[in-house]
Amino acid sequence: MADKANKEEVQVEDTAKQNEASTKPQREVSLKESNPEKFLEEFNWHNYEEGIDPIDDGKLEEFEKLVAENFVDTLDDEVVEGKVVYITDRDAIIDINAKSEGVVSLNEFRYNPDLKVGDKVEVLIDVREDSTGQLILSHRKARTIKAWDRVNAAHDEGTIVNGYVKCRTKGGMIVDVFGIEAFLPGSQIDVKPIRDYDVYVGKTMEFKVVKINHEFKNVVVSHKALIEADIEEQKKEIIGQLEKGQVLEGVVKNITSYGVFVDLGGVDGLVHITDLSWSRINHPNEIVELDQKLNVVILDFDEDKTRIQLGLKQLNPHPWEALGDELKVGDKVKGKVVVIADYGAFVEVAEGVEGLIHVSEMSWSTHLRSAQDFVNVGDEVEAVVLTMDKEERKMSLGIKQMTPDPWTDITTKYPVGSRHKGIVRNFTNFGVFVELEEGIDGLIYISDLSWTKKIKHPSEFTNIGDELDVVVLELDVEGRKLSLGHKQTEENPWDKYEAEFAVGTKHTATIDEMVDKGATINFNDDITAFIPNRHLEKEDGTMLKKGDEAEFQIIEFNKEFKKVVASHMSIHKEEEAKIVKDAVKKQEAAEAEAKPTLGDANSALQALKDKMDGKK
């Protein structure tokens, strides 16, 4: 049908050209003769039907030709082209060269708010005649019939189409394209991020059909695709004119945690967060805001990847250059803590000028701690300049130098043998660090914690933060070392135990634990004795076991190594030996009493002789 309409349009144009080539009177006659409506009004049908006024066959053929050229065939489902001849508040009047003009509701032209008289539009005959005899046309139905052909053609040929943004939906917009609802993703609206989608609702825009799903009748369009090609050409052109050190004006397009994207007029550049300010900042929004105009300097660029690195702080001289010669080593400065690390803290003494306070320069104490134990971010501190290198732009500071070194009079305050109180600050496997005052730490070796307890780790004896009494055992001024003792604050109880638990003394106790090769017993909180297996034997030959109470004899005592060995067997063995010894003594005494003397022997012999003589 479209081909027919095009053919008719060509024929009308040819007729118009022929008419323009003739004279004016001839044109008027030709137009009069070629007016079908007037021809019908003036034609005498009665004479023709009665045969009174016969018509020449040539004129009939001409009449049929005129009708075919000027009137459309108003068949159903046929799309024809019409011309807008008048527009009311609600409707558009369309001339399709039919007997009468047709009406189309303006609602069907919402996608084209610029519709005007003279525009050509496609319509479908919806109702030939309504109750008032009016011809009703449908532009929407005509667009629907042609829509898919046009959409497919636009997609295949890559042509640009107009669309009306109807409403917002999840992830994008709904666009009317040729009467078909197409999806416009949010990322395809523009090359820059869109913060307010609603501003596009109700607008007519140009789009490119980028995807069609024939199975589900889905169409995806893009406005961004239309401008990307131009932008790429602009980028190449702009980058080709760039030079390092060049200063350009741009607009802040996007702000991220790592930097700021600046639109340079068709090409974007990145200002990294470290290039925004000579001072440390936590987030770029502390320096710039969206849509802000600012000058930036070209630091570097990549023509192939179209990447541009920009700088903002480089527009101002480095603060170190403006520092001057008035600041020197040994001067006192004030600043704010901006960054804290395990090894120290960075202090900003002037805008863009920082110094490092190493943790070792925060306290006179040789026992190092974390920087967080001394300062916090945002603290205002006063320090002394220790070193300075303006070429390398480095400065080291010290806090402890603000107070006198406590080791200067250490021999006076902490002589060997003096007693003090200290706070437990840290443990090691071999001892405890005790702080006597800020900057004065001493070490108590694990062997100097207790006279009697066998300690495997200092945590078994004390806790971090506990207060301990100590005695200064050794002092190394040059090495800044103090050796302390805790057990020395008390008398050595083993001096007393040496007499109380001397070898041979007897004590009653209970078997506490069965151990390898014997058992242990506790005489008190300090004295633990070991009983070898064979010394656990009882008088009846059985062995003592855990929980049995018995009497024990000390058979070994070593004060230096705190070693005590006891025996139960020796108790009853000793008694047996004593009994045997006493029995031997009694027997010997008895035997001694019964043994004859020499006189007794002589008397006995005399008696025996006398007896023998009497027998005779």
TrEMBL record:
GO terms for molecular function: mRNA binding; structural constituent of ribosome. Residues 1-17, 25-35 have a biased composition (Basic and acidic residues). GO terms for biological process: translation. Keywords: Repeat, Ribonucleoprotein, Ribosomal protein, RNA-binding. It comes from Aequorivita xiaoshiensis. Binds mRNA; thus facilitating recognition of the initiation point. It is needed to translate mRNA with a short Shine-Dalgarno (SD) purine-rich sequence. The lineage of its organism: Bacteria, Pseudomonadati, Bacteroidota, Flavobacteriia, Flavobacteriales. Belongs to the bacterial ribosomal protein bS1 family. Residues 77-140, 158-224, 245-313, 330-400, 417-487, 504-569 form the S1 motif domain. Residues 1-35, 591-616 are annotated as: Disordered. This is Small ribosomal subunit protein bS1. Pfam families: S1. InterPro entries: NA-bd_OB-fold, Ribos_protein_bS1-like, Ribosomal_protein_S1-like, S1_domain. The keyword Ribosomal protein applies. SUPFAM superfamilies: Nucleic acid-binding proteins. GO terms for cellular component: cytosolic small ribosomal subunit.
